Each structure stands twice: as structure tokens, then as C-alpha cells.
Amino acid sequence: MNTVDLNCDLGESFGAYRMGNDQEILDYVTSVNVACGFHAGDPTVMRKTVQLALGKEVKIGAHPGLQDLIGFGRRNMNISPQEAYDIVVYQIGALNGFLQSEGGSMQHVKPHGALYNMAAKNKELSMAIAEAVYKVNPELILFGLSGSELIRAGQAIGLQTGSEVFADRTYQHDGSLTSRLEKDALIENDDVAVAQVIRMVKEGKVLSQQGSDVALKADTICIHGDGEHALSFARHVRESLQLSEITVKSFS
């Protein structure tokens, strides 16, 4: 029987601005990636998100991003590998403080947005991120795009890795995600998205925008928690996986 983790980005509200369905979506996922204050989130949001996830017994990971609140961490920045190392260590430490104060522990680290996509293709950047995670805690799992440089970097340094696939994103022939600047980056039809997910888990393949199959490994599926129909989509994905005899569970 196939087994997969179901993860979601949470804690992306900031001050008076509210984003996502954090409390409700926790009923359908097995891991969450909590924003650490650089691309989204703030100390109060981080604390509340940790408390919510621990209350639902959902595994928690750090979601470090570029220091770009206005751009939500989705704009590329020309940072050095040393800078990448520093911001990842810093953000892991911030979330870990809240986890320890609430009696919890961290399961994984998943870079956010532009940092994630840059590291997927840039070997030096991915090695810096993997080193940051390893030096903070070698027991942490590094989440990265399936088949990416980030996964290879994590494996090379000795981390357990989680090869991630996306429920509602389209793919290119090289296994990368279609840029959000392109009109076909997101899959708007829920049934099409679910069919893609099931095929990725069961067959290890996804159909690219160029019409060719791309081989990939699906350890964890990302669903986004900030869309207009995020909650109903999360429920639909979870139920469809179970109906397809795919067990949904966290790594731990």
C-alpha cells in the first residue's frame, strides 16, 4: 500500500492581516510548514500556529523564506550561499524557540517560495541550506522539490529528505514547477489536481506542460492553505487519497 505525507504552509498571517484557514485545514494534513517571520508571519502568529498544530497532533516544520514581506518571498533575490545559510539557521531557531516553549519538537524544514525554487536548481545554494539544517539538527527532515538539487544536497550531507510534489501546480519537462508568472502555473480544476496527485503517488510520474511524462518521487504532497477554496480542496485531496488506498501519514 502506498503511503504519503500531506503538508500545508501555515502561519502566514502578519499583524492585522489574516491569511488562510489555519485551524480548519489542520484536520486534513499530517505536516505543516510554519512561516518564520521573513516572508510572512510574526512572533504572535508563530506561537498561535504552533499551539494549534500541537493541539491537532500535526507534525511541525520551519518554513524559512527570503526577507521580503511585500513580495511574500516569491521574488528572486541575488543572495549568496552564506546569506542563505544564515537566514535558514536564524529562522529555524526562531520557530524552534516557540516549539520548545510549548513542549513540541520540529520534524522538518521546507524552504519557501523563491528560496525553494532557486535552491531546486542552484547547487551551491542548496548545499548551504542543507548544511544549515544539518548543523542545527541532523535529525531534521529536509523537504524539497522531487528530483531537485535541494534533495540531492540533503542526501549528500546525510539528512533524511522528503521529496515533495504539488497538488495544484503544473510541471515543466525538467521536473521544475511552472513559474507563477505564467497563466497555466496553477491547476484550477480540483478533479484534475487530484488525479495528478494520485498518479504521482502511485505511478511516480507527472505529465509536463510539454506533453511528456516526468519521473518523480512523492514522499509528501503540498496543498496550499490560502486559496479561495483551500479547505474544500484539502478535504477532497485527503478523501480521494484514502479512496485510492493511499495511506496518509506523517514521516514520524
Describe this structure in words.
- Catalyzes the cleavage of 5-oxoproline to form L-glutamate coupled to the hydrolysis of ATP to ADP and inorganic phosphate.
- It catalyses: 5-oxo-L-proline + ATP + 2 H2O = L-glutamate + ADP + phosphate + H(+).
- Belongs to the LamB/PxpA family.
- It contains 8 helices and 10 strands.
- The protein is α/β, with parallel strands linked by helices.
- Strands 1-2-3-4-5-6-9 form a 7-stranded parallel beta barrel, surrounded by 6 helices. Strands 7-8 form a two-stranded antiparallel sheet.
- α3 (81-101) runs parallel beside α5, α4 packs across α5 and α5 crosses α6 (149-157).
Structure summary, number of beta strands: 10
Q: Between the first and last Cα atoms, what is the distance in angstroms? A: 18 Å
Kindly report the oligomeric state of this protein.
single chain
Please mark out the parts with pLDDT under 50 across 5 or more consecutive residues, or reply none: none
Shape: globular
Beta-strand percentage range: 15-25%
Order of helices and strands: EHEHEHEHHEHEHEEEHE
Give the spatial strand order of the biggest sheet: 1-2-3-4-5-6-9
The helix content, as a percent range, equals 25-40%
Number of helices: 8
Find the structural class using helix and strand composition. Answer: alpha/beta
Quote the average pLDDT. 95
Main beta sheet strand tally, sense and closure = 7 strands, parallel, barrel
Radius of gyration: 17 Å
EC number: 3.5.2.9
Function: Catalyzes the cleavage of 5-oxoproline to form L-glutamate coupled to the hydrolysis of ATP to ADP and inorganic phosphate.
Family: Belongs to the LamB/PxpA family.
Catalytic activity: 5-oxo-L-proline + ATP + 2 H2O = L-glutamate + ADP + phosphate + H(+)
